[in-house]
Amino acid sequence: MIVILSGVSGVGKTTIAKLLEDLEFTRSISYTSRAKRNEEEHGIDYIFTTREDFEEKITQEFFLEHTKQFDNFYGTAFEQIESSLNEGKKIIMCLSKEGFKAAYARWPERVLGIYLLPPDESTLQERLFARNSDDMCIRMQVIREKISKENLEKDHEGYHHKITPGTIEETLSAVLELIENFKKTN
User: Fold this and answer.
1) pLDDT digits (tens, 9 = 90+) for 131-165
2) Which residues have a Cβ under 8 Å from the Cβ of 70 and sit 6 or more positions away?
3) 2-185, which class in CATH?
4) Cβ-based neighbours of 63, under 8 Å, separated by 6 or more
5) What is the DSSP letter of 8?
6) CB atoms within 10 A of CB 158
7) Hey, is 76 helix, strand or coil?
8) Domain boundaries in the chain?
């Protein structure tokens, strides 16, 4: 089983993924070319690499999926997912819509896609400012555009479920319920 969480920056994907990891899920660790934030650890939060190394891996078809956001690359190593599935592990991933589509195309019977809708712009802004990253203005501009009603409807097309996060506990409970229902039908 692969559970994929998607949504705009600051919506809570990583928080929910880390909580699911505590519940016997294996969290996919993405590669990225962006700089490490103070609280992040290499190999735990991301596998940090150079832009040149990332681009080389793209040419080698190393990634199941990859995307460029805010001038940085992000990608999921195909071998990491395949190995975890072969070991019978349940996987949690935070991916873009393109990443979800790639994983779903590869393993349609194993993928559960959940799109986390943003609660409201002010909550997202608070969360992103708390990150204290240099690209905050760019992120907020992109997020304002993404959370317009028209764009949100396009962004979550194709997902199995949509959730508007409440508290962390409420969101986790909703995600766990969707996972249980998915297990019953697959």
Assistant:
1) 555 555 555 555 555 555 445 556 678 899 999 87
2) 34, 135, 138, 139, 142
3) alpha beta
4) 31, 57, 75, 76, 77, 78
5) S
6) 12
7) strand
8) 2-185
